[in-house]
Amino acid sequence: MQHVSKRNINPRAAGEEVVSLLSIRNGVPELNFTEMLPTEMSVKIFSELDVRSLCHASVTCKHWNLIIEGSDNLWRSHCLSALAVSHREVDGDRSNGLSWKVTLVRNYQKSCVKRRWLKGKYSNIRCVEDLPPNSMCSLDVETWGEILEAELER
Description:
By secondary structure, the chain is mainly alpha-helical.
């Protein structure tokens, strides 16, 4: 016969430390992992999220928001990935003292537009009226040069 051990998560039976980590939702106690783990571990977990998921996680609760907003490294990795439009713009934002998150937000739409153009999403467009919304934005000369080269190769 197999013995199954059940943890007692009843707040009245738990020690004071565990009680402070419990939240009650619909009468069921829940644990918030970010309050139980060192901040460095929570940051490591959050670093596995993509940009959209990271933004959603930051509005989940105040504690998650404090960790995510307080860790510039979480945003740095996304900013330096394929999302960054050009190193010149990122370097300019950083030299102006902007955080990695602000730099990412400022360049996110540009990077999406650049990525779509480079993938050829707009290659068969014949006139301006055929362009979908949000398919154009101001890009630097270097970026438009990359897009033109990609279009000429197609």
